[in-house]
Batch of 2 targets.
Target 1
Amino acid sequence: MAGWRSRFFRIGIILSMLGAFYLVALASQAERDQLRSIDVHLTPTCSEKLQAYGLTVADEYRSPYIVKAGGNPVSAAGYTAEDVRAIQRGCNIVDDLQGHLSPTGVRERWNATRFVRGTHTTCTHCHQSAGDKHDAEGKRPVGSNNLGASWVMADMYDRFTGMILSNELRQMQCFINSSNGFKPNISDDVIRDVTAYSRFLAAALDLKMGVRYPEQGLDEIPASATSRRGDDYVRGARLYAETCASCHGPQGFGLVVEGRAVYPAVAGPHSFSTDSRMNFAAVNTIMPGFICRNMPPGAEGSLDNQQCRDIAYFLSTLPRPAGDLKGPLSAVWQQAMMKIMPPLTRYAESIGRGQSLQSDQ
Amino acid sequence: MSVRTRPWVKHFALSSVPVAAIVLVAIFAHFGPSAGTWRAQLPPAPGWSEFQSANGIDEFGEDGYFIRAVQHGYGLFYYTTEYAPRFTRRTSTDAVHSCSGCHSVEDLAHGLVTSDRFDTVLRKRVSFEERVMRCYAQHLDGFVPTIYDPAVRDLRILARAVGHHLQLSEGVRRQKE
């Protein structure tokens, strides 16, 4: 009899737990449905951009950007209110992943912080101007990581992973490596909204399917594009101190104002991981390309190819989180370095400054 | 001499079971019904060469991987019962037994560029992949592949290749003829 009671009790507990999980799933789904239906509070960048591109609920979409440029825009399928909200949320996620500019916090970003480890990461740090950068003349700069151009060239073979990468899988890689975080589900609203926004950019800019535009991705700079002096992290350290440290900090930890990363970390615990393509030690052409084409803001193109490679080399020597592929020993080592190196570097630099003051006197 | 007196025989027999299982899986992966999906070289489906040249497949994609995926997509589209038998109950004797029974490849390309929109019937935004999965389950009277399955992915890549050939922009609808 006692055995039956015990068995019945255990089955009851299991059924209760399954029921509780089911209720939690239902509540989560209902919350998502509610979030999908509420009006979106746009960030200033997104508000300006989406207004300029004429995003409204309509049966037909004709890009005002193309009209303004003197072109004849194609007639594209319009957007429903649900589509418009998805595009707006996608823009917000790209511009402000951590929800600092949202009145309801990160909830309006589908709690995207659960997919990143640091507090700095947002897509717009690499995909500048919410993934759609324009120069002073209104042109889209070469190698500016345009998200619309990425969408039309998705599904290509990726030489780093050896896979055909869809747009969604590429976004997942950004979360894992560039954000040193975790992979969202391919059907997660975070991924789907960013895809919706990228596709809208492709429509607004009238980008053709499968065409490689210069603003797509980064303009890689191999050693062969330099005068072959060789990459030098000592030169890179000096250049970094002169050109980059005023924004990113002397040790690359970024600048945070009122909890928001104004300038992102390029080293340390809030930075991209060692598995990221931005890591010069992993791929030595991408970070120099990003620096040369996009840095420093307002003075892009002021650094030559060798200088960009030197700075990227120096950055790769700074401690940062180990990527998942590197294994636990590397992770422990990098964690230790991120603790030990900053005070040691400060101390070493203070000695250097003292000696230089004495020699000046 | 009985087996009881030779324990190594029993030990050998037990340890060979997992090895045999692994060998069987490897043989199945090599010769199995979907083996074509995993091979580096696909035997071309009838009409592939003509399709390839007519749609300029070789001019798009930076490598053979993309073209191979398009080739597999072509097989899935025109010969669904042979290329995706796991996901359809239809046979070649049915009137409609492939994607091409309802759609043209141009439809597919336009379907890609106008996907990810709100569907008034389903009351939600529907991606291209979900449409393909629904086609397998409903129109092809079969089963839903996962979103990562080559049976879904390669149809999207086929649509992308044709979309490139037609120079489609995002959201462009097909003109009624």
Note: Chain A has two domains: 37-204, 223-351.
Target 2
Amino acid sequence: MKTENHRVLIIDDERPVLMTLEALLKRHGYEVDTAPTATQGVKMLKSRSPTLVLLDLRLPDADGLEMLERIKSELPDVQVIILTAHDSLHNAIESIKRGAFHFISKPYAPEELLSLVEKALEKQFLLRKAEELREKTEQLEKRLEIAEARPAPIFNSKPMQEIEELISAMAPSDANVLIVGESGVGKEVIANAIHARSRRAGQAVVKLNCAALPQTMIEGELFGYVKGAFTGAMHDFPGMIAAANGGTLFLDEISDMPADLQTRFLRVLQEREYRPLGSTQTMKADFRAIASTNRPVPQALAENRLRSDLYYRLNTFQIEVPPLRKRKEDIPPLIAQFVRQFSQQLGKSEPDIASDAFQKLLDYSWPGNVRELQNAIEYAVVLARQGMIGVKELPAEMQLPPALQQTELGAGPRGGVQTLDDVERNAILQALAECRGNKKKAAELLGIQRPTLYNKMKRYAIEL
Amino acid sequence: MISFIRQLSHDLRNDLNAIELQSAYLDELGKNEEFKTEIKGLREMVSRLASTLQRLSRAVGEVTPTLISYRATDFMEDMRTKIERDFPKESEEITWDIQLGHTMLNVDPQLLQEAFTEFFANAFRHDRGKGPILARARVDNNDFLFTLQEPKAQFALSTKNWGREPLRKISLRHYGLGLNRVRTIIEAHGGKLLAQHDPDVSALITTLTLPVSREASEEA
């Protein structure tokens, strides 16, 4: 048992005992503090954080047993060895019942005392190790739970296979990664896959969604703060960079991070150092940065939503995740994965999917991408009757004719001017969608006669 | 022989500790007052036995002092406090005469205190005569000199081998090992122990000499 870094506090009013014990323990490598009274002992307990206390039962200003109870209630991890005279063996036994590690009669034999001290510290070491292992097991169980619940990326389609190859090649490095793609394509899933294949896989992946937090809060969340750094900072908070130490920091929707904070974060990436808010202490930053954005990069740069210097720093590797509608081969395995996942969660057996319902799922344009597919399957699994998912169990959006589905409705030129024809066509599609294909009601909603609606539908090639 | 006694003592003490814990447990189980009284008596006996064995074990054990620099005046002050606490009534009969200035000792104060306590305990216990016990502490020729003069009602022992004859005087719960232990402690500190009976004043005069820590004394 190593003696370094073990601080022992001796509380005894007998000066010869106090000084001899101090000398003996110091000569054997322990750090020692002494207190001749209970009052001074309490102060030392708070200020010196000892790992072991040698406590005399007969103190001038307190009862030793009460002192023992106080130590064990305030600092349960601290081991206590009772020093007692021959005539107080009863008290010594009482002290064991109240949580002391052991007792030793005065005058003690040095070798006996040293052996007891070593055993007490060994016990404490083992207790701490057991506690650490318990915490670690809990963490691992949580991670396992999350990993089991977390969807694995599907790499069936050609573009996704290329992404997988890229991940395999660059994951083991510490290179920064920028993941680009529409909302719901699985950018976070890709980030998790990179982390899982990296040498940091044993550590945490910490996620900060810059779009989900008020801009004023992002700084504190990211860099951490010390108590009193600002109104409401009631205690120290280490922040996400600290939490990601040794692991991966995933900044979702980086283009929603305030510009000045982007500059500060760039400095962290360059210098690998940062300072929590209100602190004068510079901390080391050891994390791999993965960022994502759902805005097209040229647009984000043009609108100054993403600083170009940060972009170039993050863009060591760029992964562009295609929308689900452009990789239909991934839909069947994704469906299978989600059906399995939600069936397990709901404690149901996995339902089959009727062929017409399956076709609907394949034909749908998935404007919300994989996230929308996930939600649709959850909905369907919940509603599944007699082990089967039919068209009726799919969300209403999917049951609409293809012409009325959301992609079509929003399919105007992005960022450009729509023609009057486009506007009219979209208005008709919206009315039909809202009235679930009922032309009479749609015509009423549009304020036109039904024949006029038919003519316009013909003109714009809208088929139901 | 010594290691045999130590091992035997150690084993017996272990058993006694177990008995003590067992009896403490029985005490908590018992509801009957008479039963509790009996258990209490039993526990006291066990406790006394354990204490005797510990003393015995220590008496024959090796002395390995943890030497530290210690002010002689502090040592005598601690000693006086301890005697007054352990022997409140008898200590009233002691006349203290301590003149040590800034003298420093290089000693194990706990072990040395154990030796000094044995002196006083013997003085109170054996053939106590009339008159005060004189405890003097001086520095003489770079030696710390402690003299204990105790009036004796009768004294027929030879002091020639004082402390070198263990088991010389054995009686109920007394094994004649105390002085032997005292001498071992004193000699482990590089000191000397002498005793002399002065028939003119009917007193036993015990003199203990310890080397002064010169370096530390000069610093002081």
Note: Chain A has four domains: 7-125, 158-322, 327-398, 406-459.
